[in-house]
UniProtKB/TrEMBL annotation:
Gene3D superfamilies: 3.40.1350.10. InterPro entries: Restrct_endonuc-II-like (IPR011335), Restrct_endonuc_IV_Mrr (IPR007560), tRNA_endonuc-like_dom_sf (IPR011856), Type_IV_Methyl-Rstrct_Enzyme (IPR052906). Residues 66-171 form the Restriction endonuclease type IV Mrr domain. The keyword Hydrolase applies. GO terms for molecular function: endonuclease activity. The lineage of its organism: Bacteria, Bacillati, Bacillota, Bacilli, Bacillales. This is Restriction endonuclease. SUPFAM superfamilies: Restriction endonuclease-like (SSF52980). It comes from Paenibacillus terricola. Coiled coil: none annotated.
């Protein structure tokens, strides 16, 4: 009987120890996952700030990067990740449309804002007006910053995507991944 009690005590201790080690391992995985997520979010924030600083307009500067180059940057990213063909409109007389995108479902109109401050509803109203005039099926407003709550409320139900700075960074990373994969595929093609 004592042997049986001792043996069952050893078995119970074994399972408790195994459960304890399992919980330690799970907690360690959670801590590492949280750390990786946090550092990834910090990286995206750094990239977002970098995009703003690269493309922002600086008065009286001979800096080559400017909002027109930001429009081309966004058009390239959107064409890659959405699969359409994009065209950047001329700098003036475009009635607030920076990008025209031809996709399988039809015409999409876009406006980009290289801002540090939050974007309000005004660019959404302009894109919506142009969508109605041009018969576009959808639109988007892209910024390096954020949108105000009024902007989100205004865009609701208009088929206009609001892409904030963090989402733009995610799209850009997808774009870069697509380019990397394409380059690898070209390297694998046998030379004739």
């Amino acid at each position: 009987m004592n042997i049986l009690l001792g043996l069952s005590g050893v078995v119970i201790c074994f399972f408790l120890f195994r459960d304890y080690k399992y919980r330690q391992m799970i907690n360690s995985y959670r801590a590492h996952a949280f750390e990786a997520f946090t550092s990834h979010e910090e990286m995206k924030e750094t990239l977002r700030i970098g995009l703003y600083n690269r493309f922002k307009r600086e008065e009286g500067s001979d800096k080559e990067e400017d909002p027109l180059l930001f429009e081309h940057f966004v058009a390239d990213v959107m064409a890659s990740v959405r699969g359409g063909r994009t065209f950047v409109t001329k700098g003036s007389g475009d009635y607030g449309v920076d990008i025209e995108e031809q996709a399988d479902r039809g015409l999409y109109l876009g406006q980009v804002k290289c801002y540090q401050d939050s974007v309000g509803y005004e660019p959404i109203a302009i894109i919506h007006s142009q969508m109605m005039k041009q018969g576009a099926v959808g639109g988007y407003v892209v910024t390096t910053s954020q949108f105000t709550p009024n902007a989100y409320a205004y865009a609701k139900g208009l088929n206009i995507d609001l892409i904030n700075g963090n989402q733009l960074v995610e799209l850009w990373l997808d774009y870069l991944e697509d380019k990397r994969e394409s380059a690898q595929e070209l390297q694998l093609v046998p030379q004739v």
